[in-house]
Amino acid sequence: MSDEGTESELLSGAQEVLDRFLANRGERTLQAYTADLEEFARYTGKALPEAVAQLLAAGPAASHRLALDYAIELRRRSRALSTIDRRLTALRALVRIAQDAGLVDWQLDVPGDEEVAAAVERQPVKESEHYLFPRHPGEIDRLDIQHYALREMLQTNHLAPVEDPRRILDVGCGTGQWGYEMCGQYPSALVVGLDLVSGKPGQPERYRYVRGNVLPALPFRDGEFDFVHQRLLVSGIPVAAWPGLVAELARVTRPGGWVELIEVPFEIEEAGPAAQRLVDLTRELVGSLGLDTEGVVYQSLDGYLRGAGLVNVSRRNVKLPVGRWGGQVGSLMVTDFRAGVTRVCEVLQARGRLTEAEVRDLIQEAQQEWEHGHMSYPFGIAYGQKPEAT
């Protein structure tokens, strides 16, 4: 509490502070500052005069902590840095007016961008309740093998016609391999990878990892990136969340920049009996997690981009072979599938859906089918451009 009085005693002076702060403002400035103060009041859960009284009663150290916590919440809500700065400046101005009026004898030390960013990084991140593949040391290798197979098939790391990007975002970056390679492809670009856990060691100098969940919002400013890339999150994002997620990708893309999505359905073309059984069991597990079981996301990639307001939308479908008949890509995909279904079967076994013997037999039979059949796995790649500002 401050030396000058209790919060209740400060309440009578809080309205006067507010009136002085808002006096003689132009109409647009008045509207902006009123919105700023009302959001602070909503954050505290109090009426506006009571929220200001709480700030004044907090004292120097506690008021700084309150301002920092408020800034963290604004970051979580994806407010622009300029908006956050303005709202903190408004709080500092209120305290200065209160000081001039003799209500307090201190000034508010508002946190800077670096302090807020560091505090956000320290915040615990709620992990996805929907992700299909459990954490496992071998998951890093599986994701890298998957990346190499797709890159070999496409003969590139992206299809969007990106030209000289300065800032690149990889959403759900996994091991970080895609971003690491983009650092080499575009040496002047800063590549940012977002995921719940950091990738593998050896990050390039111009690579930055940001810890965070893709839902409910991305922790970046509007128009911050020239190229936003996201792939293979159908195994972790509920189908109903996809339109909003793609809208977030578009929000953080600059006008003229590009968004690219890569996703798959949970199906194998020309699957043998054992492989099909594994697909069916995977769909069952996927459905229990609230994920897409019908290929809606795969079919809707280009539609999501258009729905987010992007233009020049294009789509390409490819089929990655699974088995030796598909050469290097096919062999990589066999390794990827073996590791993936092993992880899924571990979950199914833990839930009592399969016995250890059934898991062993299914994987062995599927392995034979992959090696000697002509199965393939479809991938959809869609990209679109954010319209230039008018």
What tags apply to this protein structure?
2 domains, Rossmann fold, 12 helices, single chain, 7 strands, 390 residues, 7-stranded mixed sheet, disordered N terminus
List the helices and strands and how they pair.
Layout: H1 7-22, H2 27-44, H3 48-76, H4 81-100, H5 113-122, H6 139-154, E1 167-171, H7 177-185, E2 190-195, E3 207-211, E4 225-231, H8 242-251, E5 253-263, H9 273-288, H10 296-307, E6 311-322, H11 327-350, H12 356-372, E7 375-385
Parallel strand pairs: 1-2, 1-4, 2-3, 4-5
Antiparallel strand pairs: 5-7, 6-7
Question: Concise description?
Answer:
The protein has 390 residues and is α/β, with parallel strands linked by helices. The chain is built from 12 helices and 7 strands. The two termini are 51 Å apart.
Distance between the termini: 51 Å
- The radius of gyration computed from the alpha-carbon positions, rounded to a whole number of angstroms, is 26 Å
| Average pLDDT reading | 86
In terms of DSSP E residues, the strand content is 5-15%
Low-confidence stretches are 1-5, 125-131, 134-138
Shape: elongated
CATH superfamily of the largest domain: Vaccinia Virus protein VP39
Q: What is the structural class? A: alpha/beta
Number of H- or I-type helical stretches: 12
Main sheet attributes: strand count, strand direction, barrel closure: 7 strands, mixed
Give the strand line-up of the largest sheet: 3-2-1-4-5-7-6
> How many structural domains does the protein architecture include?
2
| CATH secondary-structure class of the largest domain | Alpha Beta
Which fold name fills CATH's third level, the topology of the largest domain? Rossmann fold
